Amino acid sequence: MKIHSINNVNASNSLLKRKAKIVLFILFMLVPLSGLSQKIAVKTNVLDWATISPNVSAEFVVNPYMSLDLSASFNVWTPYADSKFNHLSLQPELRYWFQRPMAQHFLGFTLLYLDYDLMRKKEYHDGQALGGGFTYGYNFVLTKRWNLELTAGVGVMHRWEKKYLEGEPLPATNNANRWCLVPIKLGVTVSYVIF
């Protein structure tokens, strides 16, 4: 698979459309949660934007000490000729707040789904991954509506992929599977509390 071939561009566009439909479906399914929430925030992770990965999150307070954070991120651009990391990630996280939701310290449990196409040093990895882990964060309340959140987490992830070198054909089936310890979440997030 060549990075700049027309077939790859068409395949990437088709894959992006399918992934966008999945994200929209998930967001549509979450609309009923907003009716149960006392507080809702819309957020974006600045660190993801630094890697040219547009992202959005929504956080819903579900009781006086817990909230549900739902994040989605993608990247379809190849800014460097010798490497790329195109992906779609979905990450729900259940958070326990020590004071009140969306303020100060929290511990979380998160799951991660990742669909990726990675190229590094002329080695390609086309695959998917599932993982889970624990997070810690602190939410700075800046104003009534604006917050700044710092988050870090560690977990395990299982990935299965088609791995091949440049110039080789794409394998018909997955030829690499692996469990690994990963930083499951890392964020500097700006949030706007809707109500």
Any overview of this molecule?
The protein has 195 residues and is α+β, with helices and mostly antiparallel strands. It has a single domain (6-193), classed as Porin (Beta Barrel). The chain is 18% helix and 58% strand. The chain has 3 helices and 8 strands; from the N terminus they run ααβαβββββββ. Strands 1-2-3-4-5-6-7-8 form an 8-stranded antiparallel beta barrel. The longest helix has 24 residues, at 6-29. The termini are far apart. The model is unreliable at 1-6 and 33-37 (pLDDT under 50).
Shape summary = elongated
Strand content: over 45%
* Rg: 18 Å
Strand order of the biggest β-sheet: 1-2-3-4-5-6-7-8
- CATH level-two architecture: Beta Barrel
| Order of helical and strand elements | HHEHEEEEEEE
For the biggest sheet, the summary is: 8 strands, antiparallel, barrel
Summed up, what is this model?
The chain has 195 residues and is an alpha+beta fold. It is built from 3 helices and 8 strands, in the order H-H-E-H-E-E-E-E-E-E-E.
